[in-house]
Amino acid sequence: MTRKRFAVGDKLGPLVKPPVTKTQLVKYSGASGDFNPIHTVDEFAREAGLGGVIAHGMLTMAFVGQLLTDTVGAMGALKTFGVRFREMVRPGDVLVCEGTVTEVEERDGLQYVTCEVTATVQQDGRLAVAGTAVFTV
Amino acid sequence: MPLQDFEPFVGRSSSPVRNEVERGAIRKFADAIGDPNPVYRDVEAAGGRLIAPPTFSRTFDYGRIPDLPLPSAGLIHGEQMFEYFRPIYSGDVLYCTSTLREVRERNGRLGTMIFLVFDNTAVDETGELVVRETLTVICREGGLSA
User: Fold this and answer.
1) Nearest C-alpha of chain B: how many angstroms from A88?
2) How far from B14 is each of A99, B68, B87, B129, CA to CA, in Å?
3) Hey, which residues does A113 pair with through a beta bridge?
4) Could you read off the pLDDT of A10-40 as tens digits, one per residue?
5) Contact A24 B34 (CB under 8 A)
6) Which of A74, A92, A108, B50 has the CB geometry, 3.0–4.6 Å to A69, for a possible disulfide?
7) Which chain A residues have a beta carbon less than 8 Å from that of B81?
């Protein structure tokens, strides 16, 4: 098998996820142990001034994680992955995850690839998360 | 809650909490995020043990730093970073600890905000570091609705 090689400017994705649903937020609450009711109880989220439930930031980050493992696999190629949470994500939002390679370093016969990654809401272009990842190939 | 209330806790840690990585927990997590990758579900595809998705370690119990006065509501998750030393597998027994690394205050359009930066680590039974998380939690003075 020929190893995948990367160059600055290469694109990752896009990975377009199905619309976020309230059921998914309940499932993610259960799977993650984050039971903050701002993600699952509309009345609570409205009283908190959010206008309704919002998605867990970590759910959106997991979507970007999928973009990365779809690109390099889940077997340990990923070295670092960090994001800032920007705009809130709500049920119905379609998240588009993308990346751009910004740096490639050749070391010990491996490529250390740095890329900028984002998740944006397809409907209106809101930036949900933005960050950086480093992987080796 | 003023900055001075948090400052004495910088450098303090929780006691390590034992976390067992179960196959079912990995499968449920992969289902919840809608990631069809077989290595999260099928032991054979994964080479004997399931592999956890990159953000799975956020589900671990890292314990609580004794007496740290964290408000129960109105916290905002500002940033999240993972540093990976090896994949997490089903069957792993990991000891997880949280340390308050830094606190700082910032005045923005939403008023005074306090940033708490935590280092969370997961170490395996041989003492090897498996993953380090850095997370930034933002507390707004007066809570979320201020």
Assistant:
1) 11
2) 36, 10, 24, 16
3) A104, A135
4) 999 999 999 999 999 999 999 999 999 999 9
5) yes
6) A74
7) 80-83, 131
Over the Cα atoms of chain B, what is R_g? 17
**ipTM greater than cut 0.90:** yes
User: How far from chain centre, in Å, is Cα A63?
Assistant: 4
Q: How many Cα atoms occupy the beta-carbon half-sphere of B91 within 13 Å?
A: 6
Taking 50 as the threshold, does the pLDDT of residue B78 lie above it? yes
User: A-B interface: how many C-beta pairs under 8 angstroms?
Assistant: 104
Examine the pLDDT at B42 and tell me if it is beyond 50.
yes
Say if B24 is an interface residue toward chain A (CB within 8 Å). no
Is B80 in Cβ contact with A61 (below 8 Å)?
yes
Residues sharing a CB contact under 8 Å with residue A66, sequence separation 6 or more, in sequence order: A15, A17, A97, B33, B35, B37, B53
pTM: 0.95
Residue B145: pLDDT band (50, 70, 90) is: very low
Name every residue whose Cβ is closer than 8 Å to that of residue B139 and which is 6 or more positions away in sequence: B1, B70, B71, B74, B75, B76, B113, B114, B116
Q: Is B63 left (phi over 0), alpha (psi -120 to 50) or beta?
A: left
| CB-CB under 8 Å, B25 with A31 | yes
User: Do B132 and B120 contact (CB within 8 A), yes or no?
Assistant: yes
